[in-house]
Amino acid sequence: MSQIKSKNALITGGASGIGKLMGLQLLQKGLSTLVIWDVNESLMQSTANELTQLGFKVFTYVVDVMNTQQVIDTSLLVKKEVGKIDILINNAGIIVGKFFIDHSHSDIDKTMGINSLALMHITKAFLGEMIQTKEGHIVNIASAAGMVSNPKMSVYVASKFAVIGWSDSLRLEMENANTNVKITTVTPFYISTGMFDGVKSRIVPIVTPQKAVDKIIKGIENNQLYVRMPGIVYIIYLVKGLLPIRWFDTVVGRWFGMHQSMDEFKGRS
């Protein structure tokens, strides 16, 4: 079981949405210091003020996670000002929500950069101390979209496929080397935050932010390898492996309505 009390945690994209809620819940469970990385300085300061008024210790850093040098430089500053990060939650992410042909080259670079590459660079920046002290927990927020292809999500799906593969490979490396560094990969269905404003789901329930946070924090405490939500996500690989692809497309895409789930997508303004 990973300990939260008296530890230091860093959450990327921690100024709003489930990032903010995870930070609050970790602090309520006895976290010593919360470090927030976010690109939105005003929103981050508002969140920090709200948490410090509750008596919690919060450090904030404006970081564009696509900027690798900024990630490296800020990680060094965090180690100097805060100390070792015990719990790293790679939460920052974006979605464009267009057909692939309508993506700009910048859309592709940003989606892959923020959703995939940034997680690797940030983890690389903090992993060494975790291995050295034989203590640490890394949480990578992927998506059920990394398990199922879907129209108007092609680049987002690609970025989350990458996260799942990298995160689980990292888990195996940490286990094989007996580092005691825990890796948890999170693959939720749509979460009802501004990021997915406008999505529709015919059968599979959209996850509430608080439900998502409760499951993620429990996953940290219990050293879960994967946190999937809702429960039906656990059988995606089984169904996908058993059914011919055209049958799978029909069941998931047509009967469950997944291929139309992004038709009215608006996203965060």
Structure overview:
This protein has 269 residues and is an alpha/beta fold. The chain has one domain: NAD(P)-binding Rossmann-like Domain (Rossmann fold, 3-Layer(aba) Sandwich), CATH 3.40.50. The chain contains eight helices and seven strands. The chain has a seven-stranded parallel beta sheet, with helices on both faces. Helix 4 links the parallel strand 4 and strand 5. Helix 1 crosses helix 6, helix 3 runs parallel beside helix 4 and helix 4 runs parallel beside helix 5. The termini are far apart. The model has no long low-confidence stretch (mean pLDDT 96).
**Contiguous uncertain segments of 5+ residues:** none
Structural class: alpha/beta
How far is it from the N-terminal to the C-terminal residue, by CA?
Answer: 39 Å
One letter per element, helices H and strands E, the order comes to EHEHEHEHEHEHEHH
Supply the CATH architecture. Answer: 3-Layer(aba) Sandwich
CATH class: Alpha Beta
The level of helicity is: 40-55%
Under CATH, the homologous superfamily reads: NAD(P)-binding Rossmann-like Domain
Describe the sheet with the most strands: 7 strands, parallel
How much of the sequence lies in strands comes to 5-15%
- The total strand number stands at 7
Strands side by side in the biggest sheet? 3-2-1-4-5-6-7
CATH topology: Rossmann fold
Key traits:
seven-stranded parallel sheet; alpha/beta; globular; Rossmann fold; 269 residues; 8 helices
